[in-house]
Amino acid sequence: xxxxxxxxxxxxxxxxxxxxxxxxxxxxxxxxxxxxxxxxxxxxxxxxxxxxxxxxxxxxxxxxxxxxxxxxxxxxxxxxxxxxxxxxxxxxxxxxxxxxxxxxxxxxxxxxxxxxxxxxxxxxxxxxxxxxxxxxxxxxxxxxxxxxxxxxxxxxxxxxxxxxxxxxxxxxxxxxxxxxxxxxxxxxxxxxxxxxxxxxxxxxxxxxxxxxxxxxxxxxxxxxxxxxxxxxxxxxxxxxxxxxxxxxxxxxxxxxxxx
Length: 259
What we know:
By secondary structure, the protein is mostly helical. It has helices at 3-6, 10-35, 38-45, 52-94, 100-126, 137-148, 153-181, 187-207, 212-236, 249-253.
């Protein structure tokens, strides 16, 4: 699905998914019941109602498998952002072990990285335009500063080691964040889910082809379930885009004070 869908406000996304689902359902109802006359009606009624159960189960399994991937990607993205924020917070706290100049430089590096992540990387991740070839200049500079420190005493030596480890953790967490930002359902899964929903709707229409009201009710109930499943998957499909996208709020919370 294109970027335009994920840029829609949630109410508009709901309206679009519901509208398309019910338009397709209405078309199936009109076509199948319009053809259900004479000999074709007897053929349609020969369709076994027992097939509806396995068709519904297959649709439910597809939704479950796809939702598991989507939820897993969201969880991985949350963990990456939390790790990154925690590592940056550790750098800010450990920098207090050094004189004012070194402390200020570490705080400035953390501030610059958070600013670039929020203003540049997050919008780019929403459109899946960030790649690992983009070097995090601020983190690289911070790691270089940490390696160039001349610690005095055991306390500063320990702080230096922890700062280096924290910058490495932040780099790894950022890498994971970018990798997960590229995660999205491929077209095969989307089309497979949509086609299974359409096949099940057609089967429902065939079973109830002799009664328009019953067919409309049965199709309406299943179409509602289809719209809900599609909406939940689409809204969570990209971890950093859409109405439930992960925001950089936790990074902003660890921004050094006074920056």
